[in-house]
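pasting input
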Amino acid sequence: MEKTLAETIRELTRKHLENNNGIILGQCLSAVGWVNNTVPDTKNIVELPMTDVAGGGIATGCAIVGRRPIFVVRFQDFMFLNSSMLINYSAKSKDIFGVSSPVFIRALATEKKGTGPVHSGITHSIFMHVPGFKVCSPMTPGEYEEVWKNYLAGEDPMFVSEHRHSFNQVEEMPNVIHQDAQITVYGIGYSRFKVKEATDVLTREGIKCNFINILWLKPLDLSERILNPLKQSKLGLVVDSGFEISGASQSVAYELMKQTKIYVEALGAGDRSVGTAERYENGTPTTKKIVEKVRELILLRS
Amino acid sequence: MEYYNLLKGESFNQKVMLDIFEKMCSIRNFEKQVKKAYDEQDILCPVYLSIGQEAISASVSSSFNPNLIFTQHRAHSTYIAFGGNKDKLVEELLGRDGGCTKGKGGSPGVQDFEIGMFGHHGLIGENVPLAVGAALGAKNKSVLCVFGDGAAEEDYVFTAMAFAATNKLPILFICEDNDLSILTKKSERRNWELTDALRAVGMPCEDICDDPELIISTVNNLKTNLPAFINCRTCRHRWHVGTGQDGSPHEDRLEIFEEGLLKRGISQSEIFKIQEKTKIEMEELWKKHLQKQ
């Protein structure tokens, strides 16, 4: 039986803690479902107190003495507190002090009714902005294994933008390429599930769309695999679950345009705070919104 | 010759006292050369001088031999007292590739892995959670963590120290308490002492002045029961950053210590010999590096 993403994370973590002298730190790791069943009940688990600022520093301290810590932040919004020492020391220590500080930062996002202003954020854009981090957003078991392997082989701290809605994912997410596609739509993080739904809807309507998964945000993969579909379709859209303004979607769209000189738009969460009541929700663009955006872009081009 | 400490009933020998005095003189004379080089614009980066605070690191280094050291921005004294490479320190302050961080960390970011000392990035008090994490991760390695009374007020410092107490991590925390955050006195900033707060979480604490004998006896008492915290009151002579001075310092521990040594029978010539030796050593050290320009 194939493993879910959550089971994959748990088993990779178990091996690290049991066989690799690894360590995992975070708040309430062993409570309420062991972080959505992604943390194994084994040794080398450190329960941090509610110290959202010092916690990142403690993880960084573990890293500089060689323990390869997994640092779990249960809600990405909490990164605003947890990031100060990760940004100021972990990301810089290799460059400034010649000592690597490879913290594996598991930053969990979530989106569900009523999560409101402090439990629904996607903050990977902030870490893309800081020199020294690798930033990725794996949504499948295979992607997570790739990310983990990359982390162990390197010396950099890694910001891993997870999303709870993907934890039951079993299948991989292949790119979808059409020879005569009218647009190439790139998906980041959880938005990829919505992009896939949207491109399926559009294709059924007769609007052929390429669908490309973006796993690595930094360094951004600008290989032919990513660029060629755009060169063929001559129009692009990048969709992200995080805020669109100055965020990952705009940044990636800009890089794609710079590389290909082809127009690429960005679509992400709106530039406003999220509220708890349904009418104030503001997260991953819906399937409907992506469909409408694609239609609009194709209409504008024609 | 041995001296008797009335407070703790411990005896110290002359060699230890003179070693501390020599370290204090080395740091003072090094920092005087830093001031000269800074004032003459050979040093272009901001400098955080340890002048006036030398006794703490000189004394702690005589009684505690940590595997790992995490310091704050004002760390020339710790670097020198624990045997950091002074050539690399000079090169660092001159912003050269031969510096201990190749000119990237500057005065507040000095490090020397030979003595287990990690650089400080500049976020005040960040070295406390880092030290705690290093002690947690390294297992059974003793750690020294030095910070100032301003850093003591950073919210993440207390929680990190409390975590060290909860997990019984082998860290000696030292606060070099010069009563100033830039120029704002502690009494204007808070109505509490870190020693009181930490006693509440079960950490052994002492609040003392920077008398070398008292520091040594306190470190000796606490180092077998880590984590522990010493708040050590001292007097910074120069500005928070830079080489300036606002009036005369209210005390000079180096002078007080020198008087104490004289009263206890150390000859003036022996003291003068140490002063001259360290003065010449630092002058020549700086001259050698400045001539390389």
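fyi Chain A touches chain B through 32 residues (CB under 8 Å).
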